[in-house]
Design brief:
heterodimer; A: 460 residues; alpha+beta; Cytochrome Bc1 Complex, Chain A, domain 1; 2 domains; globular; B: alpha+beta; six-stranded mixed beta sheet; 17 helices
Chain lengths: 460, 474
């Protein structure tokens, strides 16, 4: 609610990796013990009982993201904020305060595909969290005053993340360039004018369509007794009525036939270079190979981009590329922070040269093994906290309709070959499917001559 | 059982429709049973011992996952740098990752990445940490890399020059980020002439003067067996590891702990002191204000933590968030707290708002700080803040690595090693009177340093009636 709208490329990259592979040695895969229950009203409940620590992660995954918006962009995210503004028996922000009274962490995020409400709590507080979560879904009570006040909060969030932030500006421009038709083209936080005008009726309509049990998945991981928790959930959520219709936007992004470019001027020292290529939607067989490519480009000081752009050429302060999977579509991104004394033009050349190499030269077996190993290890390291386990379970289930066993993911990862890497690079990382964004200093205000694009870039 | 009460209320409402009051009556959300104090550290899994050269070792076993993390933390950090050499710890740690033992920068990177491991050398004010983590089956390779990076960094001239250029570029870029700009100028305002007043990374003046000799001197000052703590958590055989650690670190030079940093000069503002950092294009102003804080080892830090939690540290439960975000919609986040270091860091409140509302937000913050003194929290509010604090403390120690790094932190600050186990009791004994007294003693709303980043032409007219305004161009 106040931390994430999860449109950070890096965060997304980490999220998509976390579901991908596991180490070569035998590893206990706790998610195999997940119990899946579907209530009569369509609510899905995923329970993973684990008594190792006295902590519980509770997450409510709502099948509604910015891709489901019409008329007002940003309403999914603004609505996420409104879910904290009170219900029949609870005043504004009381939901958060009641949980915080036990030290619980409570927050939410909205992405292009979903909205997730999450709580990490001492085990004893689980009955409270279940009752509170059901209370706001059953009895949300928002009004014009709370909407107007929260709208201002969201506009502050937008100023902070995007309007005064070069990385945020680059990301917003990148998606708006990569997509011309699909709702993925607008920012999760919404365009300013839409956020300013969202009505209470539109919020209520959004709630009625998407916050129904048949569009919700509850994930609970940690120290509890499954039967008791399921009984609590049945009692609290079982009376909710399913919604007759969960509307989805029908638009399919048409194929791109030529490079697109966007330039943004901003008061800055260090320009931003970003690019995106078309890539498949989540669950595609090429997904894992795109992750391997992201890894060999970006992971660690031996990665290709760090070595070339940051270390050898000293043009960038950071450089990464990776696969960003979404439900309806996907992209492969490039992102680099140019040094104050570097050139955004040179950074672009170097980046695209590394991408060219992927298409034209087969990678060595050693480099392939290294990248696979990095993906494997990251997964093992990330399994300790219940929050991360719940996130993996929720993400898999809501995106693919099932929880992928680690063994299966390992087998798929192991099967990726050097030929696959080259084939996938040749298929997706091509010029006509490329969108390029630069955020660069505003040209000298005294200059009346039209701005030459390359020169404008070279100034920094 | 508590649920029954909740449902009873509803039933009662249905049976007595004339009793309108109950329609707005809140159901009983008191559903949480007593949360017992579980032991933080499982003594069965923890070992503390010294190697033959006096190096302190902490081991914490956890065999649930096939992973291992190990590291070395020093008892002194960036705060011990001379002001003229500000940034030397940052540069040193960067170069430590660029070649050690027989491996140059690329070979070291390949060795780490080839294991899928993560290596980090991180500078802090009170400690520098070298840290590596990976799969437990790679334990001996990970330990060999840790040993090399800690004991045999190469500090090659060429790498120092590259890293220095990069560090200067990072300093140059910090102007693009309003959050770092406000932090930087706030600490400069709080600690003029003191090492705390310049960011850890140093300044455009100090960094160009850093060379190999200064890096080596910095290394020699903080890296030795007496000054360091070695720690390992995860999946390992303790008896075998003990031998391996002795072989890797037992013959490291003993050395000594360097003197701690001098106390900061007490030159905090005597009246409101306002600094505006001019960024004409910004639509949002970044605000930080505060005054002197307290040290990490101060006995009052526990009651101060509860007081600060109520003021601005406890998310939606804190007064600042309730007023400025929830009620007024003026910001997305507002926080207060104390930077806890060996020597007193600053008490600070930070937030951001649309430029035209800057003065109003500053006034509201000052009003809430005064409110902690004029209308201090009652027992119920203090009770909730204590419960928040105790619960969050336990949640923060969910992982084995978090427990171990908290134990190392106690060592670094010379705090009793049972501090984690006694913490919750030290919170419980606090009363509303204690919190009120701490608010009166600690908070000085009439003599604060106030730093705002944004368009000076709009900010100065708003702020000048509050006190003297200094304008800085970044």
């Amino acid at each position: 609610m106040f931390k994430e709208t999860r449109y950070s490329l890096l965060v997304l990259f980490a999220v998509c990796l976390s579901g991908l592979a596991f180490p070569a040695q035998a590893l206990d895969d706790p998610t195999l013990r997940t119990e899946i229950t579907k209530l009569d009203n369509g609510l899905t409940v995923l329970l993973l009982e684990d008594h190792a620590t006295p902590v519980v992660a509770f997450q409510m995954w709502v099948g509604a993201g910015s891709r489901d918006e019409h008329r007002y962009t940003g309403i999914a995210h603004l609505f996420e904020h409104m879910m904290f503004k009170g219900s029949k028996h609870i005043g504004p922000e009381e939901h958060a305060r009641l949980i915080e009274a036990y030290g619980g962490r409570v927050n939410a995020y909205t992405s292009r595909d979903r909205t997730v409400y999450h709580e990490d709590i001492p085990a004893e507080a689980l009955p409270l969290v279940i009752a509170l979560e059901a209370e706001r879904v059953a009895h949300l009570d928002i009004n014009q005053a709370t909407l107007d006040s929260e709208r201002e909060v969201v506009l502050e969030e937008r100023r902070m993340r995007t309007e005064d932030n070069p990385q945020g500006l680059a990301l917003e421009a990148l998606l708006a360039t990569r997509f011309v038709a699909h709702p993925y083209r607008w920012p999760v936080i919404g365009w300013r004018s839409d956020v300013e005008q969202v009505t209470l009726e539109a919020c209520q309509e959004f709630f009625a369509h998407y916050y129904a049990p048949n569009n919700l998945v509850l994930v609970v991981v940690g120290d509890f007794a499954s039967e008791e928790v399921l009984a609590d959930i049945r009692r609290e959520f079982g009376k909710l009525k399913p919604s007759a219709e969960v509307p989805r936007n029908p638009t399919v992004e048409p194929e791109q036939n030529g490079e697109r470019r966007t330039q943004v001027y901003f008061d800055l020292e260090s320009p931003i270079f970003a690019a995106a290529w078309h890539a498949p939607a989540a669950g595609h067989p090429d997904s894992i190979t795109l992750d391997v490519i992201g890894e060999l480009l970006s992971a660690g000081r031996s990665s290709r981009l760090y070595r070339r752009l940051v270390y050898e050429e000293e043009q960038a302060l950071s450089a990464s590329g990776g696969y960003w999977e979404m439900k309806d579509d996907g992209l492969f991104y490039a992102f680099a922070g140019v040094r104050p004394d570097g050139s955004v033009v040179r950074v672009e050349e170097l980046f695209f040269d590394e991408v060219r190499k992927l298409r034209e030269e087969a990678i060595s077996q050693a480099e392939l093994e290294k990248s696979k190993r990095q993906i494997e290890v990251r997964l093992v390291m990330g399994q300790e906290m219940n929050h991360a386990l719940a996130a993996r379970i929720g993400s898999d289930f809501t995106t693919l309709g099932r929880i992928r066993p680690l063994e299966e993911q390992l087998a798929i990862l192991e099967a990726v070959s050097a030929e696959d890497v080259q084939r996938v690079a040749q298929k997706y990382l091509i010029e006509k499917h490329r969108s390029v964004v630069r955020v660069i200093p505003r040209p000298n205000p005294g200059a009346l001559a039209p701005v030459d694009e390359a020169k404008g870039g070279e100034a920094r | 059982m508590k649920m029954t009460n909740f449902r009873m209320l509803f039933v009662l409402c249905l049976l007595v429709p004339g009793w309108l009051a109950c329609l707005s009556m809140r159901p009983d959300f008191d559903l949480v049973g007593e949360i017992p104090d579980r032991p933080i550290v499982d003594e069965e899994r923890l070992q503390r011992f010294e190697l033959s050269n006096g190096l302190n070792v902490l081991l914490l076993e956890d065999h649930r996952f096939p992973k291992i993390s190990m590291g070395v933390s020093t008892r002194r950090g960036g705060a011990t740098e001379a002001l003229s050499e500000a940034g030397v710890s940052s540069l040193m740690t960067e170069v430590m990752e660029r070649g050690a033992g027989k491996r140059d920068a690329l070979a070291l990177a390949e060795a780490v990445d080839g294991l899928g491991a993560s290596l980090g050398v991180m500078p802090g004010w009170d400690s520098i940490t070298v840290y590596i983590s990976g799969l437990s089956r790679d334990e001996s390779e990970l330990l060999a890399i840790l040993r090399d990076v800690v004991r045999a960094p190469r500090f090659e001239e060429d790498e120092i020059e590259r890293a220095r250029r990069e560090q200067l570029a990072v300093i140059g870029r910090s102007k693009d980020d309003p959050a770092s700009l406000v932090r930087q100028h706030f600490t400069e305002t709080m600690f003029p002439g003191h090492r705390y007043g310049v960011p850890m990374i140093g300044s455009a003046d100090s960094v160009p003067t850093l060379d190999q000799q200064k890096l080596r001197a910095c290394y020699d000052r903080v890296f030795n067996a007496r000054s360091a703590i070695l720690f390992v958590s995860g999946d390992f055989d303790a008896a075998q590891l003990r031998q391996d650690l002795e072989a890797a670190f037992g013959d490291w030079r003993e050395g000594q702990v360097a003197p701690a940093v001098e106390a900061p000069p007490a030159i905090f503002p005597e009246a409101q002191h306002i600094v505006v950092v001019d960024r004409p294009e910004l639509v949002q102003s970044r605000i930080m204000l505060g005054h002197e804080g307290m040290s990490r080892s101060n006995d009052l830090r526990v009651v101060n933590g509860i007081m600060n939690g109520i003021l601005g540290g406890n998310g939606f439960s804190s007064r600042l968030m309730r007023k400025i975000r929830s009620d007024e919609g003026l910001t997305y986040g507002v926080y207060s707290g104390v930077a806890m270091r060996r020597q007193p860091g600053a008490f600070q409140v930070s937030t951001f708002t649309r430029v035209p509302e800057t003065r109003r937000v500053v006034d509201l913050i000052l009003e809430e700080i005064r409110g902690m003194q004029d209308s201090p929290p009652d027992e119920e509010m203090v009770g909730k803040a204590k419960s928040y604090d105790i619960g969050r403390f336990s949640l923060g120690l969910e992982t084995t690595g978090a427990v171990l790094s908290s134990l190392v932190d106690l060592e670094i600050h010379d705090l009793p090693e049972n501090s984690l186990d006694t913490y919750r009791q030290r919170v419980r004994v606090l009363s509303a009177a204690d919190v009120a007294e701490e608010a009166r003693r600690f908070l000085h709303p009439d003599r604060m340093g106030i730093v705002v980043v944004g368009p000076a032409s709009e900010l100065v007219p708003q702020l000048e009636s509050l006190g003297s305004v200094e304008v800085i161009t970044p």
